[in-house]
Design brief:
The complex is a heterodimer of chains A (134) and B (616). With 134 residues, chain A is of the alpha/beta class. Chain A has a single domain, classed as STAS domain (Transcription Regulator spoIIAA), CATH 3.30.750. Helices cover 49% and strands 16% of the residues of chain A. Chain A has a five-stranded mixed beta sheet with strand order 1-2-3-4-5. The radius of gyration of chain A is 16 Å and the shape is globular. The N and C termini of chain A lie far apart (58 Å). Chain B has 616 residues and is of the alpha/beta class. Chain B has four domains: 136 residues, Heat Shock Protein 90; 147 residues, Signal transduction histidine kinase, dimerisation/phosphotransfer (DHp) domain (Helix Hairpins), CATH 1.10.287; 150 residues, Histidine kinase-like ATPase, C-terminal domain (Heat Shock Protein 90, 2-Layer Sandwich); 118 residues, Response regulator (Rossmann fold), CATH 3.40.50.2300. Chain B has a five-stranded antiparallel beta sheet with strand order 1-2-3-5-4. In chain B, β13, α13 and β14 form a beta-alpha-beta unit. In chain B, α1 packs antiparallel against α2, α5 runs antiparallel to α6 and α14 runs parallel beside α15. Chain B starts with 9 loop residues before the first strand and ends in an 8-residue tail after the last helix. The chains are: A alpha/beta (134), B alpha/beta (616). Chains A and B meet through α3 of A and α1, α2 and α5 of B. Chain B: Its EC number is 2.7.13.3. Chain B: It is found in: Cell membrane. Chain B: Keywords: Coiled coil, Kinase, Phosphoprotein, Transferase, Two-component regulatory system. Chain B: Pfam families: HATPase_c (PF02518), HisKA (PF00512), Response_reg (PF00072).
């Protein structure tokens, strides 16, 4: 049996904390699970914490990018947080830029990035009115 | 095993790379080795990432073998990992797509010998020459814990965490199920409770309905009883008037000249009519007793005298060969209603005498616990036990061989029992068929005066004698006094719609020497008074209370308007009417044929009273 990465729901945000090095099929499964959870819970944001990952190769990098793409299609924003410096350097050297994936340094900042998405309809209208007034 | 383009070196490790898991193991091992050989963190990550890229390609190409060696190359030590695949492994392409091109960007040198078999060797220069001891210890470390490093512990923890999550959610589900079950049970209990309380309510309303029904039955019974009493009273009144007429007319007939045979027949007629009147009177008495309107007048009764009187009245009725014994009184005086008590005892004695052909009839009086026990014992035919209570029902006649010869109304015993109850006592019977019966009338120690007064007050209105004048006129003493001077030579107008009774009154007055005119209606009476010639006007008017065209009392008023001083006598079989002020002096006489003289006395009194109406 392959390992499963747990997905926690906080408000309208799904939090994925990757604590160990991922096997390829585990990564693929995470991708499917996330898509399913977004649809089921109507989450507006996905926060992927990869602070436990020591190695991100091209496969994992592509997986992160495709999670972001799938989420966007399902009307949810994705933020990847906690990337180690060595991992970041290696990814750049590999030519992986994680295009289209927003990043943040840690979970707290990541949640702040996602926060506007959680605005209530009233707040959105109010903000739009203010912008129109300026 | 022969690394291409390099000297053979020291082999640290060799293992197959076929699956994802092997790729993971490969990059983990690569990182450990790089760390063990003193490469910096960034190089460790680079090398491991490169291994991952190549390993994935090898696994995708059908699997291969990885060999980790440390060797000397152009004067410096290098770490070399060689992946050998039996099938061709792609070695060119874009770095972004991974595989060997990606690895080329991460390590210093990638040696490829295209196959098949394909051999790819990643070469990384080491910062320092590792000692042999160090290499040995590294090899030992890699051999001994191929799989129990921190990373796999993390995996285990991860798995545990997931298990725990699973467990938690299953516990939650279980709780939910338990909750639902509890809710279900609760609903069941509530339903049962509702059902029970519904049933209870139903039973309750049933009980209430039952009570209501019982109540209704009770009311119906009381109403039926009341109707019976009313019937008896009414019928008796209606019967009394004609019977009185018959008796009065018969007595008139008796006074006229008759031959012996006619006289005998008239006496039979008189007997029969008197018996009929007796029956009607008894019915009336019973009805009065049943309706609770029996008047009770308490007085100190001379007991020995009462017993003597009873002996005297009963003795003539006793058959030949039967002894009548009346015992001595245990005390001289008893406080009760003399008339009612005498009535009860007479009824009992008469009854005993009727059904006793031989032996004796005895009346004994005993005092027990303050009560007076009057026992009438006979040696007559007796009563079967099943009939003992029946004899106290109205008109009950127990079949026996004496019945054809014995006359009775079937009202004596019921009436006696009623009277005893009115007096606060009781009447009981015991008997042995063929040997005789004993009837015991028990008087209570003393009837409280309050009770007696209450009874008297409540029954006073139906006493039938509202006016004191009438009472005096009807009394036997007054009657006897009047008899001595029963002449009335004046003019009288008799007004009554009842032809028979009018004839009786007319004959009585004529017998007393009066000149009598008659009228059947109030209107006719008024005409007669108004149209009378001077000197022909009636000296007295005898007026029936109930007339078809008007009330007798109103008639008095109308007649008095014509002649204010007109003497009037009112008569009726009913109770005395209420009189208006202008008729206050008018006496009232009951229609009682046995007491004709009372009417005469009243007529004489008002007609001769000086002033008449002027006195009022």
């Amino acid at each position: 049996m392959t390992d499963v990465v747990p997905i926690l729901k906080i408000g309208s945000t799904l939090l994925v904390s990757i604590q160990t090095d991922l096997q390829d099929d585990t990564a693929l499964r995470l991708q499917e699970d996330l898509a399913e959870q977004i649809t089921r819970t109507g989450a507006r944001g996905v926060l992927i914490d990869i602070s436990g990952l020591e190695i991100v190769d091209s496969f994992i990098g592509r997986m992160l990018a495709s999670i972001a793409g799938i989420s966007r299609v399902l009307d949810a924003a994705t933020v990847v947080v906690g990337m180690r410096p060595a991992v970041a350097i290696t990814m750049v050297e590999l030519g992986l830029s994680l295009g289209g994936v927003r990043t943040a340094l840690d979970v707290e900042r990541g949640l702040r990035v996602l926060a506007p998405v959680e605005q209530s309809p009233e707040e959105v209208l109010l903000a739009a009115a203010q912008r129109a007034g300026e | 095993m022969t690394p291409g383009g390099g000297l053979p070196g020291k082999e640290l490790l060799r293992f197959p790379v076929r699956s994802d898991a092997d790729v993971l193991e490969l990059r983990r091992t690569g990182r450990s080795v790089a760390e063990g050989l003193g490469l910096d963190l960034q190089d460790q990550v680079r090398f491991a990432t490169a291994l991952s890229e190549v390993g994935r390609s090898a696994a995708a190409a059908g699997g291969g073998v990885a060999t980790v060696t440390v060797r000397q190359e152009t004067g410096e030590s290098v770490l070399a990992v060689t992946l050998t695949t039996t099938m061709t492994m792609p070695v060119s392409g874009q770095a972004e797509d991974g595989g060997v091109p990606a690895a080329r960007r991460l390590v210093d040198d990638v040696v490829v010998s295209s196959g098949p078999p394909t051999e790819v060797t990643l070469v990384k220069p080491l910062p320092a020459q590792p000692s042999t001891d160090r290499l040995e210890s590294l090899r030992a470390a890699l051999d001994s814990h191929p799989d129990t490093d921190a990373l796999s512990q993390m995996r285990a923890h991860n798995a545990e965490l997931i298990d725990m999550l699973e467990e938690l959610s299953s516990t939650a589900r279980q709780l939910e199920a338990t909750n639902a079950e509890l809710e279900e049970t609760n609903r069941g209990v509530m339903a049962m409770y509702r059902q029970l309380s519904d049933e209870l309510e139903e039973t309750n309303s049933g009980v209430v309905a039952l009570y209501a029904e019982l109540d209704e039955r009770g009311r119906q019974l009381a109403a039926a009883n009341e109707a019976k009493t009313r019937f008896l009273r009414h019928v008796s009144h209606e019967l009394r008037t004609p019977v009185n007429s018959i008796i009065g007319l018969v007595s008139l007939l008796d006074d006229s000249p008759l031959d012996a045979e006619q006289r005998r027949q008239v006496s039979f007629l008189q007997d029969s009519a008197t018996a009929l009147l007796g029956l009607v009177n008894e019915l009336l008495d019973l009805a009065r007793a049943e309706s609770g309107r029996q008047e009770v007048t308490l007085s100190d009764v001379d007991l020995p005298a009462l017993l003597a009187e009873l002996h005297g009245t009963t003795a003539p009725l006793v058959r030949d060969g039967v002894v009548l014994e009346v015992a001595d009184a245990p005390r001289a005086v008893v406080r009760t209603d003399r008339h009612l008590l005498a009535r009860v005892l007479r009824n009992l004695l008469t009854n005993a005498v009727k059904f006793t052909e031989r032996g004796s009839v005895r009346l004994t009086v005993e005092e027990r616990d303050g009560e007076l026990w009057f026992a009438v014992t006979d040696t007559g035919i007796g009563i079967a036990p099943e009939h003992l209570e029946e004899v106290f029902e109205e008109f009950a006649q127990i079949p026996n061989h004496l019945q054809p010869t014995v006359r009775g109304t079937g009202l004596g015993l019921p009436y006696a029992r009623r009277l005893m109850e009115t007096l606060g006592g009781r009447l009981e019977a015991s008997s042995v068929p063929g040997e005789g019966s004993t009837f015991v009338a028990v008087l209570p120690p003393a009837l409280p005066d309050g009770t007696a007064a209450g009874i008297a007050a409540s029954s006073g209105s139906s006493a039938g004698a509202g006016a004191g004048v009438a009472e005096g006129a009807m009394g036997p003493v007054a009657g006897a006094a009047a008899e001595a001077d029963a002449r009335f030579p004046g003019r009288a107008l008799v007004v009554d719609d009842d032809d028979a009774y009018r004839a009786l009154v007319v004959e009585s007055l004529r017998g007393a020497g009066a000149r009598v005119t008659q009228a059947a209606t109030v209107a006719a009476a008024v005409d007669a008074v108004r149209g009378a010639q001077p000197g022909e006007a009636p000296d007295v008017v005898v007026l029936d209370v109930r007339m078809p065209d008007g009330d007798g009392v109103e008639a008095v008023v109308r007649l008095r308007e014509l002649r204010p001083d007109l003497p009037v006598v009112l008569m009726s079989s009913g109770p005395a009417p209420q009189l208006p002020p202008q008729a206050r002096d008018v006496p009232f006489v009951g229609k009682d044929s046995r007491d004709r003289t009372a009417l005469l006395a009243a007529v004489r009194r008002v007609a001769t009273a000086p002033g008449g109406a002027e006195g009022a």
